[in-house]
Amino acid sequence: MTNTINITDRKRTLIFINILITCIASSMLATALTTALPPIIKAFDISVTTGQWLTSGYSLAMGTMMPLTAFLITRFPTRKLYLSAIGCFILGLLLCAAAPNFQFMMFGRILQACGNGVLTSMAQVILLTIYPVEKKGSIMGWYGLSVGAAPVIAPTIAGLLVDSVGWRMIFCIAIFIMLISLVFAVFVFDNVLENVITRFDLLSFILSAFAFGGITLGIGNMGNGAFVSFKILLPLAVGCTASVFFVHRQLHLKEPFLELRVLKNKEYTLSLIGSMLLYFVMMGSSIIMPLYVQSIMGYSATLSGLVTLPGSLVMAIVSPFAGKIYDRIGIKKLFVAGALFMLTSNIGMFFITMNTSVWVASLYNTIRCAAIGCLMMPLVTWGISGVKIELTAHGTALLTSLRTIAGAIGSAVFVGIMTAVTNSSLTSYGARAPIHGLNVTFLAMALSTTVLLAVAVFLVKPGKE
């Protein structure tokens, strides 16, 4: 069975361009608020652990939405679903731009996450469907540039906006870009994916929401108190219990809400594990870096954004080439190189002090971005390429959902670690307690990256898969 559909090269290119515009704007909003987080926290008079939910809560809602996308993509016409997702995202942007308080803004972020969850899954399924096998690695490399570089360059742009015109302008600019994308999509998008009549299993969706939400909420609350507490253990218990029931139900349904049998494919499972570990560390560091520059070192939001700019440029260079390298030699060497780069950057951040220049931290961030460029889209392409075309939507939804949830957990866990270590070391470290908390946090990231490296070295076969 072929993995592509017959459309003209011109139509394929126009669809790809539209997807890039949409994903650049939507992906930027995943991390744009990391730089703007300190002034937003001040404006709404909330704590850091509460404020970080504007990012990790976004990822949580997006991850909860993604299992539903497998049903939506196969059930509804491509064009209508794509336009509806953009509309939902724009509505969320409008609410955030006018938000009078944290709760109102959080609701807007959830709407953005729902729209982005559908857009992200659809984009990957569409590209992997309309392009031939020999071009998938390259095209996913360019796509990876948009979804990978955009979240990294977003803090730079956000920093300039925060210091010049205020954080609300972040959403206003995104609204303008998404409106352009919406008009463009009306004229160029066609129904390029096949649809089948399937039954919506409401119980499975509810179970998936409790599973993903409970686990992420429980872990996210770890930064607010002792581990043995009601607000941590209860969500974790609910999430784990719902996960068991969800998995059991999917394995016994004739038409699963989310086909988990794709995990029987070894390459897909390894790509899923690698993607989750990558996002776990990546999203955690994207939150920590602006806090380091602004809250610990006391610099402006503009400088905070500029510190991440070199990394964005490196990712822009690496991502397309990584796709081409994958097309030629497979995943093994890319996987190992990316894991080593990320491990190096995290170990480097473990040794910085209050006297270390922020540009040294910028160098380590650049190395981390090179790792992300090596790993993000090649892992997805490698994993999905072995999945049957009729299961592509399910495989993409599961992978994107779990890696997004892993990113939300990473944000919550690493902010929690930094906060807890800083508070507990105030007596012994004094003014150096915040930087000590940062060092321990990046040590935890290094340990997580070691697991990623072990997967690449010992479990992935050499050569082109």
Automatic annotation (TrEMBL):
<feature type="domain" description="Major facilitator superfamily (MFS) profile">
    <location>
        <begin position="11"/>
        <end position="464"/>
    </location>
</feature>
<feature type="transmembrane region" description="Helical">
    <location>
        <begin position="358"/>
        <end position="384"/>
    </location>
</feature>
<dbReference type="InterPro" id="IPR004638">
    <property type="entry name" value="EmrB-like"/>
</dbReference>
<feature type="transmembrane region" description="Helical">
    <location>
        <begin position="299"/>
        <end position="322"/>
    </location>
</feature>
<feature type="transmembrane region" description="Helical">
    <location>
        <begin position="226"/>
        <end position="247"/>
    </location>
</feature>
<dbReference type="Pfam" id="PF07690">
    <property type="entry name" value="MFS_1"/>
</dbReference>
<feature type="transmembrane region" description="Helical">
    <location>
        <begin position="334"/>
        <end position="352"/>
    </location>
</feature>
<keyword id="KW-1003">Cell membrane</keyword>
<feature type="transmembrane region" description="Helical">
    <location>
        <begin position="268"/>
        <end position="293"/>
    </location>
</feature>
<keyword id="KW-1133">Transmembrane helix</keyword>
<feature type="transmembrane region" description="Helical">
    <location>
        <begin position="396"/>
        <end position="420"/>
    </location>
</feature>
<feature type="transmembrane region" description="Helical">
    <location>
        <begin position="440"/>
        <end position="460"/>
    </location>
</feature>
<feature type="transmembrane region" description="Helical">
    <location>
        <begin position="110"/>
        <end position="130"/>
    </location>
</feature>
<feature type="transmembrane region" description="Helical">
    <location>
        <begin position="81"/>
        <end position="104"/>
    </location>
</feature>
<feature type="transmembrane region" description="Helical">
    <location>
        <begin position="167"/>
        <end position="188"/>
    </location>
</feature>
<dbReference type="InterPro" id="IPR020846">
    <property type="entry name" value="MFS_dom"/>
</dbReference>
<feature type="transmembrane region" description="Helical">
    <location>
        <begin position="53"/>
        <end position="74"/>
    </location>
</feature>
<dbReference type="InterPro" id="IPR036259">
    <property type="entry name" value="MFS_trans_sf"/>
</dbReference>
<keyword id="KW-0812">Transmembrane</keyword>
<feature type="transmembrane region" description="Helical">
    <location>
        <begin position="12"/>
        <end position="33"/>
    </location>
</feature>
<feature type="transmembrane region" description="Helical">
    <location>
        <begin position="200"/>
        <end position="220"/>
    </location>
</feature>
<comment type="similarity">
    <text>Belongs to the major facilitator superfamily. EmrB family.</text>
</comment>
<keyword id="KW-0472">Membrane</keyword>
<feature type="transmembrane region" description="Helical">
    <location>
        <begin position="142"/>
        <end position="161"/>
    </location>
</feature>
<keyword id="KW-0813">Transport</keyword>
<dbReference type="InterPro" id="IPR011701">
    <property type="entry name" value="MFS"/>
</dbReference>
<protein>
    <submittedName>
        <fullName>MDR family MFS transporter</fullName>
    </submittedName>
</protein>
